[in-house]
Amino acid sequence: MNEKLFKIGQKLISTGKLSTTEYKYLIDNRNEEITELLKNEAVKKRKEIYGNTVFIRGLIEISNICKNDCLYCGIRASNKECERYRLTKEEILSCCDEGYSLGFRTFVMQGGEDLHFTDDLLVEIIGEIKKKYPDCAITLSLGERSYESYKKLYDAGADRYLLRHETADEEHYNKLHPFKMNYKTRMECLKNLKEIGFQTGCGFMVGSPHQTTENLAKDLKFIEEFSPQMCGIGPFIPHKATDFRDEPSGDVELTCFLLSIIRLIKPTILLPATTALGSAEQGGREKGILCGANVIMPNLSPHSVRKKYELYNNKLISGNESAQEIENLKNSMKNIGYEIITDRGDIKEK
Length: 350
Ligand code: 5AD
What we know:
44% of the residues lie in helices and 12% in strands. It contains 14 helices and 9 strands. The strands form 2 sheets. The protein has a 6-stranded parallel beta sheet with strand order 2-3-4-5-6-7. Helix 1 (3-15) packs parallel to helix 3, helix 3 crosses helix 10 and helix 6 packs parallel to helix 8. The structure holds 5'-deoxyadenosine.
């Protein structure tokens, strides 16, 4: 074993902290041995905290209408081929009804930046879900909003907020986003969410166009310093109606390696094995769980709109991805030694 690589791995295991240069060295020089070591240690730490339990979240894709034009994303504003939809309050509530009876105790409302969803409307929806299901957590994933807006949503009862930082390198950020989107705004939003009191999630794509290992090292350093309660990572997968249509997909093995590292940086973190990971490779989500992830987010959106929320080519919408197939998912987790539980699934911070 490469002595230096091993030493860096040990430092990560014992302190959860590395310099950006060390993270980069780890990624650039990774081999089977270090991958195995970090994976085993990541699983060990996750088991000390969460045992073999896996938390589930019911994902409700409330709108694919988006004012943004992120270069990688299938629902970007300039994609004229995308058939747009938004759910009504009643439709969202009926997704929750179905989800609750399937055993979900967290509902994630995710959508494009759709101006139809004003603070007032969201406050109303959050209030109704909380009234009906006081034992459930609500996660929002609705993009960039003002401090005041986030505060209203939090005061209405939302518990968590997911906003991927996408990349912790400003130059790289500008290669993935149109001119009017701003790296500093995104970082400011994340800071605000945390300050307001949300359990906050950041995250990034693995293998996004123009990404270097230096960029990934910065992502890891950012996660170490920001210390989010949640972190969503998945491989980049091209979408046919974007300029990145011919770019290669991100690597599943590298994604899993990074999942182990993130678990070691923050052992208590809520770390999903994402839909993108499952879409990139059959059994991808199981691999993610075996490398230290502890959350899965099956799709609870109405069947009629699922195909339309297409962020990338061949996004999984059926099989174990579907909330309705939860029994299959439970079995597939059982087969690898894990157990899906009915629980809000909050972070266990020490
Ligand atoms: N491939 C993989 N992930 C994507 N996302 C958006 N487009 C793609 C793609 N082509 C991710 C982004 C976004 C999240 C909702 O989905 O990271 O934050």
